[in-house]
Design goal:
CATH superfamily: NAD(P)-binding Rossmann-like Domain
Strand content: 15-25%
CATH architecture: 3-Layer(aba) Sandwich
Shape: globular
Structural class: alpha/beta
Largest sheet: 7 strands, parallel
Number of strands: 7
CATH topology: Rossmann fold
Helix content: 25-40%
Strand order of the largest sheet: 3-2-1-4-5-6-7
Number of domains: 1
Radius of gyration: 18 Å
Length: 259
């Protein structure tokens, strides 16, 4: 009896695709870049610190990766930054927006400067990237945009209201952009993590008592997540395996939203 050989197909394969990852020097962004490179993608790494980006690039498997330092809070300059990336390195097939900031700030300390700093970094940058990504010549024919939000945008988070509003805004924007950018051939989705072991969480923990932090962990049945847990969800949404998915909010939360 003749045995038939079947090629092994990896639906997550990213070979030949050019992907931009923001916030790529640490945390979820760095884990996403390493995973995408391992799946065959050619990466452009975005972030504010050239030195840290270079360190991140040195860890990537494969070749052809590059860094493009930029401060995403310069909102009006984001589209031209994306255009320059496409002109120098080719159109982008995927964009994973992992950059962002978190500040624990009770409403009694609300002030315009802090409000704009958080909103611009988290929500403003997401919208500016969408504007830039849809430009002719910037994206490929089957492109995907993935945002990183937070469950803070869906649950009550005392002392964290501005951050929660910015992340909730990203989730609302995902829905609208998924329909608006459909004509451009761009899918738009969002991952919604709970607490993940990153520098942002470590900084937030310093402002809490042990009891307060323990209560936060108690609301995550599977405990703290790791950057790789979120990176795998992002890679799925960037891949052809999710070609019929757009406008989705994918919870990667260790069961937190099931509480």
């Amino acid at each position: 009896m003749t045995q038939q050989s079947h090629a092994i197909i990896n639906p997550m394969d990213q070979t030949g695709r050019h992907v931009l990852v923001t916030g790529a020097s640490s945390g979820i962004g760095r884990a996403t870049a390493e995973l995408m490179a391992g799946l065959g993608a050619r990466l452009t790494l975005g972030g504010r610190d050239p030195g840290r980006l270079e360190e991140a690039r040195a860890r990537l498997p494969g070749s052809g990766h590059n860094i493009r330092p930029f401060d995403l809070t310069h909102l009006d300059d984001v589209p031209s930054w994306l255009k320059s990336i496409a002109e120098a390195h080719g159109p982008l097939d995927g964009l994973a927006h992992c950059a962002g900031i978190q500040e624990t700030r009770p409403i009694r300390s609300f002030e315009a400067v802090a409000f704009h700093r958080i909103i611009d970094a988290n929500l403003g940058s997401a919208l500016a990237l969408a504007k830039g990504f849809r430009q002719k010549g910037v994206h490929g024919g089957r492109a995907a945009l993935v945002y990183v939000s937070s469950i803070a945008g869906q649950i009550g988070t005392p002392g964290n209201v501005i951050y929660a509003a910015s992340k909730g805004g990203v989730q609302a924007a995902t829905k609208g952009l998924a329909l608006e950018l459909l004509r451009d051939g761009i899918r738009v989705n969002c991952v919604v993590p709970a607490l993940v072991e990153t520098e942002l969480v470590r900084q937030a923990r310093l402002k809490l008592t042990e009891e307060q932090f323990a209560r936060m962990i108690d609301h995550q049945p599977m405990g703290l997540g790791q950057p790789d847990d979120v990176a795998h969800a992002i890679a799925f949404l960037l891949s052809g395996a999710s070609r019929w998915i757009t406008g989705s909010l994918l919870a990667v939360d260790g069961g937190a939203l099931a509480y």
